[in-house]
Amino acid sequence: LKKFSELQEEIDSKTILSCHSLTSSPPGWRILMVPGEPSIPNYINCLKQALIEFNTSIQEIIVAHWHQDHTGGILDICNSINTGITYHIIKLLHNLFMEEVIGNKEQKYVYLKDGDVINTEGATLKILYTPGHTDDHMTLLLEEKNALFSGDCMLGEGTTIFEDLYDFINSLEKLLKVKVDLIYPGHGPVINDAEAKIREYISHRNAWEHQILNFFHDNIGKLFTETNLLKMIYKNTPEHLYKADNINFSFHLNKLEKDGKNYQAQ
Ligand SMILES: [Zn+2]
């Protein structure tokens, strides 16, 4: 997170902040995205300073998904930036409803759904349900800039993790159809060539899938233990790396099942 002083110029030029804290220009109230990790006093201080500087307040807090680096700071904000108004804290439901509690239960989530729109001064944010990284993940389309706040579905550097590869690829395909111009990821720098990056994510996973399918095709009727499968499919990869990728391999197998593509393994 940049220091507020470093962000001043970006605020003045009315661009979106790289920390994704504020989405409209003053003097309107602001939407806070990515409330961050718990117990980061610098973040809270920067946020307080920004709100005072622009004589504004938090309109809503949007939570992209349940992970702690996207929810952990909520309680600190509610406790430290107390305006006497209960904040609306917005997120999407998990697939299987689970009661989600924030701190001492004084704050509760307001659950929205795919396609809902949140308005603030200068910004219209459309919620896009994009599961895969988690089953409650949302991205947000900033209509005025045709830009996407991608949460952890797409990162500015490195690759992201996922709970469900089938859902993850479907979400990427969905984002591809939106045809955004740029992406503000939950972590890392802004992605300027949005379409190319989304296609890169999809093709990276497809390449592994083809490799796995080809292996099964060449070994019809044979039975392998998972360890042997990994050794044969990842034959050009050092063992410590494919062991680390073991969990991704399982995700690929689950996806193949959901796609209805048959394979035999034991
Ligand atoms: Zn995450």
Describe the structure.
- It is built from nine helices and nine strands.
- With 266 residues, the protein is an alpha/beta fold.
- It has two domains: 193 residues, 4-Layer Sandwich (Metallo-beta-lactamase, Chain A), CATH 3.60.15.10; 62 residues, Arc Repressor Mutant, subunit A, CATH 1.10.10.10.
- The strands form two sheets. A five-stranded mixed sheet has the order 5-6-7-8-9, with no helix packed on it. Strands 1-2-3-4 form a four-stranded parallel sheet, with no helix packed on it.
- Strand 5 and strand 6 form a beta hairpin.
- The longest helix is centred in the C-terminal third of the chain and has 25 residues.
- Bound molecules: zinc ion (ZN).
- Zinc ion binds next to loops.
Please supply descriptive tags for the structure shown above.
disordered N terminus, four-stranded parallel β-sheet, 16% strand, binds zinc ion, Arc Repressor Mutant, subunit A, alpha/beta, elongated
The shape, in one word, is: elongated
Mean pLDDT over all positions: 82
**CATH superfamily grouping of the largest domain:** Ribonuclease Z/Hydroxyacylglutathione hydrolase-like
Q: Report the total helices.
A: 9
Separation of termini? 46 Å
Q: How many individual domains?
A: 2
Q: Give me the Rg, rounded.
A: 21 Å
Protein name: Endoribonuclease LACTB2
Family: Belongs to the metallo-beta-lactamase superfamily. Glyoxalase II family.
Domain Metallo-beta-lactamase: 38-187
Keywords: Hydrolase, Metal-binding, Zinc
